[in-house]
Amino acid sequence: MTETTTPKYKVKKAPRFSDHPEPGYALRGRIWLEKDGELYVGWGRVMLLERIDQLGSISRAARSMGLGYRNAWLWVEAMNRLAPAPLVEKSSGGAGGGHARLTLAGHEVIAEYKALRARFQEFLKQSA
Amino acid sequence: MTETTTPKYKVKKAPRFSDHPEPGYALRGRIWLEKDGELYVGWGRVMLLERIDQLGSISRAARSMGLGYRNAWLWVEAMNRLAPAPLVEKSSGGAGGGHARLTLAGHEVIAEYKALRARFQEFLKQSA
DNA sequence: GAGCGTTATATCGGTCGTAATATAACCAGT
DNA sequence: ACTGGTTATATTACGACCGATATAACGCTC
Fold first, then answer.
1. How many separate domains does chain A show?
2. Rounded to the nearest 10 degrees, what angle do helices A104-127 and B104-127 cross at?
């Protein structure tokens, strides 16, 4: 008999951002900010904010990072709702169809999170 | 008209372990160990190892922490496979139906991860 | 060898998040 | 007015993970 090597169980997954599946053992981790237990800012959202800042629109930012527009829009919506002041200023219609720009608060959040993340990466490296 | 307040979108989630949904802003995070990009040890798995050590069986450990036996078994299987040496020693049949015990390596992994986690908690507190 | 509780394994169904798709609203330019 | 690309929103479909369930294998005890 051909004994089709029983496929066992599959365990893999495909995380969304910044995965460097190195060989051997590795210490990995994630950090994020919550507001009242709800996700406020994480790495993906910060990347989105940066792209919006660079490209001027949610849809372009989403496309550029392989993210669906729907999700991108939901994320922006959530961040604006959870932040003390909106991070992204949106407008539909008009020249070019519309646009989205970062507010000062948006830029600040990017800077804060990236600084935090840098310290965290350092922590992971130290602890490895 | 009664205008049934459009339910909008839902965003909530229900993480598995150690969640303390505090009000206001909070820095949260998770760390885990991977082997070749696959999850090796995380908080849930360490909890499982501890329960196995205390209760002497996978099924009792699983029940005690509201985890399905299937998952508990899969986790143990994965950990044993990914570890340099098995963390859990299993045997079926016999007195009591069978049992599972931690190896020395199992105890070491628990200690290592918990120490790491403690440092991480400290990091989160400092960075908040 | 019958019983028992555990390990071991397969299968089905629900749930949840995301992808894909579709469509409307918007509005400065022309 | 019409155009064009974006924001805004709903709907559907799909795939992964988990819970529940079922059943076999195991081996000590009686």
1. 1
2. 150
A window 64-123, beta carbon within 8 A of B: 74, 78, 116, 119-120, 123
- A87 CB inside 7 Å of strand D: no
The terminus-to-terminus CA distance of chain A in angstroms comes to 47
Query: Facing residues of A102 across strands?
Result: A88
Place of tokens 């150690």: B18
* Within-domain flag for A94: yes
**Predicted confidence (pLDDT) per residue in B58-81, tens digit:** 999 999 999 999 999 999 999 999
Q: Domain for residue A57, yes or no?
A: yes
Question: Is A61 within 8 Å of A110 (Cβ atoms)?
Answer: no
CA distance A24 to B35: 5
CATH value at residue B96: 1.10.10.10
Least confidently predicted of A4-8, A107-111, B53-57: A4-8
Domain that holds residue B110: 37-127
Q: Which residue in chain A is spatially nearest to B8 when comparing CA positions?
A: A74
Q: Taking CB atoms and an 8 Å limit, are A116 and B124 in contact across chains?
A: no
Q: How far is the CA of B59 from the C1' of D21 (A)?
A: 16
Strand D reaches within 7 A of the A68 CB: no
